[in-house]
Design a protein that fits this description.
mainly alpha; binds fe (ii) ion; 199 residues; Hypothetical protein af1432; 11 helices
Length: 199
């Protein structure tokens, strides 16, 4: 694996300036959350740094690299190519940045869609992406920011719900993993709320 500084420099040339600024906000937030939740800080830092490493590739390049790196494009990704930047980013992290830690790759892979039964590292990257300090204010952002330090599963539930509503409102294609993830974390949320009532 390359040193963090070398990765940072390499990444800077692959991203637009606003995306780089967003990324550094995600790094800062993910490190803070990792400390709070007892997750490996170095893993969180690298996953956050590289989470959008393939996002600014032009569409043609995304399609070409997906083919070359054997990243399967499902129907939803075909219709909305931007959705592939998670799974493609995980492959780019391996091949271009020398990341060998599968847990880090999975956090990059699922940061856009989520999935049921995520690891704490995966949840942290997903949530940090949403709440990082450079995000322009929107409904649900402050709630997400508070939940991020109270309960990772409740934060996942809220952010997935907001994300799905947002995608539906704009009539964009919704990825099945997001729906499955929401069903999973909504169920968890119900259990947590029930437990809190009982105690
Ligand atoms: Fe992303
Ligand atoms: Fe992002």
């Amino acid at each position: 694996m390359l040193s963090f500084e070398t990765m940072e420099r390499k990444l800077q040339s692959a991203l637009s300036l606003p995306r780089y600024i967003h990324t550094m906000g995600v790094v800062k937030t993910a490190v803070k959350m990792a400390k709070k939740w007892g997750v490996d800080v170095d893993e969180a830092r690298v996953a956050a740094l590289l989470h959008d490493c393939a996002k600014d590739y032009p569409e043609e390049m995304k399609r070409r690299f997906c083919k070359e790196f054997h990243v399967p494009l499902d129907e939803t990704m075909q219709a909305c190519i931007d959705l592939c930047h998670g799974p493609l980013g995980a492959e780019v992290a391996k091949r271009e940045y020398g990341v060998t830690d599968e847990a880090v790759c999975d956090a990059i892979r699922y940061h856009t869609t989520g999935r049921p039964g995520m690891s704490d590292l995966e949840k942290i990257i997903f949530i940090a992406d949403y709440i990082e300090p450079n995000r322009k204010p929107f409904a649900g952002l402050e709630e997400g920011r508070a939940l991020a330090y109270e309960d990772l599963d409740l934060a996942m539930e809220q952010i997935l719900k907001d994300t799905i509503d947002y995608v539906k409102e704009r009539k964009r294609p919704l990825h099945h993993l997001s729906v499955e993830a929401y069903t999973y974390y909504h169920q968890k949320g119900k259990e947590i709320r029930k437990q809190n009532q009982e105690t």
